[in-house]
């Protein structure tokens, strides 16, 4: 059992990443719960437009000062980002949505082990912000999460948002595949990508990503979930149909204050990779 956070999944903004990134973090009170069922659990999914972010950024201090004193266990995870989590050929050969399947598998594993950490597997609330809020929304709709959680909180994100169900990921995938010298469709496209290194993919992404944060509309996400790739994830083939089929769970929906400030900072796409820019930001 690790005693510190692992590196996040590969992305172009943060250099300390690894492809071996699918980890789960559990922070719990130091004493057993007075309730024989165990402590309730809050399971967090980070945001970042589906192409950046990490559970590492939500470190010990926040949960220790806000969630843990309330007698709640805090869980956070990583899931694959950018092309690693969302690349698609636009057909059944590779429909996409791998990042959502990462989250589902993390929920399954967490459900199995949380009792060993003093948690109650029947009192789990999933919550997330931005892309994490979108993810939470999707997770409430798929039958693959039945029984894995009881409540949900979506902050600044919904599967109904224009960027929360994004068929544009097909075009993003084809642009990247072309830059990598890979076929654009079929199994051969993904087999070709598997031969590329993390550095190869990141270098190909760099000239693509600036246009993401400099748009004048809300289509600011190149990577993310797509309805057309839902397949077994959303039987029925639409968000509306999935809502009708989904089990009824308590759910809170809201927004974060000043969230778009992040995209203002990233208008300079490599702000945090230049020392002088970073010093201006933190001064």
Keywords:
10 helices; EC 3.1.1.-; 6-stranded mixed beta sheet; AB_hydrolase_fold; hydrolase; carboxylic ester hydrolase activity; alpha/beta
Topology readout:
Elements: E1 24-27, E2 39-45, H1 61-66, E3 73-77, H2 82-86, H3 98-113, E4 119-129, H4 131-139, E5 151-155, H5 169-179, H6 187-193, H7 198-205, H8 239-245, E6 251-254, H9 261-265, H10 275-282
Keywords: Hydrolase, Serine esterase
InterPro entries: AB_hydrolase_fold, CarbesteraseB, Carboxylesterase_B_AS, Carboxylesterase_B_CS, Type-B_Carboxylest/Lipase
Protein name: Carboxylic ester hydrolase
How would you portray this structure in words?
Keywords: Hydrolase, Serine esterase. Its EC number is 3.1.1.-. Belongs to the type-B carboxylesterase/lipase family. This protein has a six-stranded mixed sheet. Strand 2, helix 1 and strand 3 form a beta-alpha-beta unit. With 283 residues, the protein is an alpha/beta fold.
Helix content: 25-40%
β-sheet strand percentage: 5-15%
Low-confidence stretches: none
Average residue pLDDT: 86
- Radius of gyration (CA) equals 19 Å
Query: Outline, from the CA principal axes?
Result: globular
SSE topology string: EEHEHHEHEHHHHEHH
Strand neighbour order, sheet with most strands:
1-3-2-4-5-6
Main sheet: strands, sense, barrel: 6 strands, mixed
**Count of discrete alpha- or pi-helical segments spanning 4 or more residues:** 10
Q: How many beta-strand segments?
A: 6
Organism: Panagrolaimus superbus
InterPro entries: AB_hydrolase_fold, CarbesteraseB, Carboxylesterase_B_AS, Carboxylesterase_B_CS, Type-B_Carboxylest/Lipase
Enzyme class: hydrolase
EC number: 3.1.1.-
